[in-house]
Amino acid sequence: MRRPWWLSALIYMCVVLLVISIVAPVFWLVVMSIVPARQLTELPLRWLPDALDLSRYARLFSLEPGSQGLAFLSAMRNSLTVAFGATAIALLAGIPAAYSFSRFGKMGLLYGVIVTYMLPPVALILPLYMVFSALGLLNTTIALIIVYCTILLPFVTWLLKSGFDAVPVDIDEAARIDGASVLGVIRHVVLPVAVAALGSATLFALLLAWDEFFYALLYTNDLRAKTLPVAIGDFASGRMTDYGLISAVGVLAALPPVVVGFLLQKSLISGLAAGSTKG
Amino acid sequence: MLSATNARVSWLLLLPMLAIMLVVTGFPLANTLWLAFTDIGLTGRGYDGHFVWFDNFAYIAGDRKFRAALGATFYFSLVSVGIEVVLGVLVALLLNQPFKGRTLVRALLILPWALPTIVNAMMWRLIYNPDFGALNALLTQIGLIADYRSWLGDPKTAMNAIILADVWKNYPLIALIVLGALQTVPRDLYEAAAIDGAGVFRRFWYVTLPGILGALSVALVLRSIEAFKVFDIIYVMTRGGPADKTKTASFFVYQESFSYLRAGSGAAYALTVTAISGVLIGLYILMLRRQGRTA
Asked: How far is residue B228's CA from residue B231's CA, in Å, rounded to a whole number?
């Protein structure tokens, strides 16, 4: 179908507007992190940096006691520990569960699992707080790994279940006849075929844990356990007036998930299409 | 079909997950339910308090501030999800047209989605800054406003400013979902409709909309569930202010429990919020089941 010229013009105009609206805020965040501090508080505001100032990034990678770098790097370490720890547990328990749901049914129970994933965290915060406090686990990454299971485990189970559904049942039956155990079938037959689903479930779980803020805010209070979102919350709402430094923290915290997001692009789009049309 | 051994195997495979969920989700949920009927405080180490029956709920029923927080939550959810859906569909329709660089623009939609919620909130807080913010600079430089404003400090604009930040981050996901659904609408349906003389709007209403409605409604309910829980963006951008105008239900429960250290009434508020979410979650499960049957 040929398009009249004015329609093409309209489409390109809308596309340009769309691209600007998406890129501009992020572009500005990056600019704020690299312009000299005085330019940020100058009026009228000039949009392009007249000098490059990377000192904030240097400051964020310093380990001096009491420095902002130490706060940032500890938060980075805690975020990584928590994200990978919780994802590992979620996968270990979620893979067999997803296989069971995929091969043996129990849809009612699966819906129950999905419900817990969607519960507002306020439904759980008080008892978990009291238990962690009694066990002396407040302000530890272990506590966060435990609570993040409430989000990641149902999510991973759900995602993997639809991934395993796509693997034909015949191949696990063939392996069973050859004498493989159920766990053997999962490990050596199903997972290798569903490796794409496993990969995207892992990355999605990492992203979810990386993004979590509410529990982390409640259950941590210093360098030992604070994660990046909480550290950013501190940076952003403190009395600090170095907007450039805050922006630099934001850029660094956003970098890993944005890279993962673009890696996930294909499975994100197909997963969204599948996840939103199938149970 | 399920033999006895298979039934046993299926439960054994579920066991680790069920055990973990029972401890980290089941127990706390049941415990919140019990706490809501007590006046236990969050100060001591133990459970020092009494069973007070429905006192907490009776108190909540007359609590104007909580009602205002619920109102703010509904406003936030309805407006942000509404705009996200409309914008998401429009952008999906745009990106479904052939034009140069389409793949790149589609990939770009990932950027707001992948940006951590907290970074998004912090980014917009800086953009809205009343003294040096980019929004004020932009609007004064193109002559739309005469003086710098405090977008997050003014009770009239604060909530809408937060909604804009939330929409920017979340409508791309809806656009991607709708874009996926658009690809399943058969081309010849459009051509047949065009031959029958249907205009652009009639074609959208009778061909496009039925094709995307399933995916769109699921996205809508999912986003509503998320929006109703909203906390992080509020915490970073306004902390519930100005004049409690942006204090949402989750933020209210957080304050009730952890600033005023009241576990009993905090749990009662939490349960009320959970019950309202429960309606949305039930709707979602209903949709999943219906689509599971037709698929």
From this structure: 9
- The H-or-E segment that residue B287 falls in is helix B263-294
Nearest C-alpha in B relative to A229:
B118
A-chain residue closest to B27, CA distance: A127
Start-end of CATH 1.10.3720.10 domains in chain A: 67-275
How far is Cα B27 from Cα B30, in angstroms, rounded to an integer?
Answer: 5
Q: What is the DSSP string of B175-217?
A: HHHHHHHHTTS-HHHHHHHHHTT--HHHHIIIIIHHHHHHHHH
Beta carbons of A260 and B114 less than 8 Å apart: yes
Helix, strand, coil tally for chain B in percent (to 5) = 75, 0, 25
Residues of B in contact with A278 (CB under 8 A): 291-292, 295
Give contacts of A218 with chain B, Cβ < 8 Å.
254, 258
Cα distance between residue A19 and residue B91, in whole Å: 11
% pLDDT > 70, chain B? 96
Q: Which residue has the tokens 């707001």?
A: B112
Q: How far is A234 from chain B (nearest CA, A)?
A: 9
B257:A126 CB<8 A? yes
pLDDT digit string, tens, across residues B259-295: 888 888 888 999 999 999 999 899 888 888 887 665 4
pLDDT in tens, B15-66: 999 999 999 999 999 989 988 888 887 765 556 778 888 888 888 888 899 9
Round to whole Å and give the CA distance between A130 and A112. 25
How do residues A247-273 score in pLDDT, each as one tens digit?
999 999 999 999 988 888 877 766 555
Q: Delimit the domains of chain B by residue range.
A: 50-294
3-state helix, strand, coil in chain A (%, to 5): 75, 0, 25
Is residue B172 within 8 Å of residue B113, measured between CB atoms?
A: yes
List of chain B residues whose C-beta atoms are within 8 Å of the C-beta of residue A104 = 2, 6-7, 9-10, 13
- Round the CA-based radius of gyration of chain A to a whole number and report it: 23
User: With a cut of 0.85, is the ipTM above it?
Assistant: yes
Q: Which CATH class is domain A67-275?
A: mainly alpha
Assigned CATH for B50-294:
1.10.3720.10
Q: Which residue of A has its CA nearest to B268?
A: A123
Spatial neighbors of A63 by CB under 8 A, at least 6 apart, are A69, A70, A73
Rounded distance between C-alpha atoms, residue A129 and residue B44, angstroms? 12
Partners of A214 on chain B (C-beta within 8 Å) are 231-232, 250, 254
- Residue B52: phi and psi, rounded to 5, are -120, 20
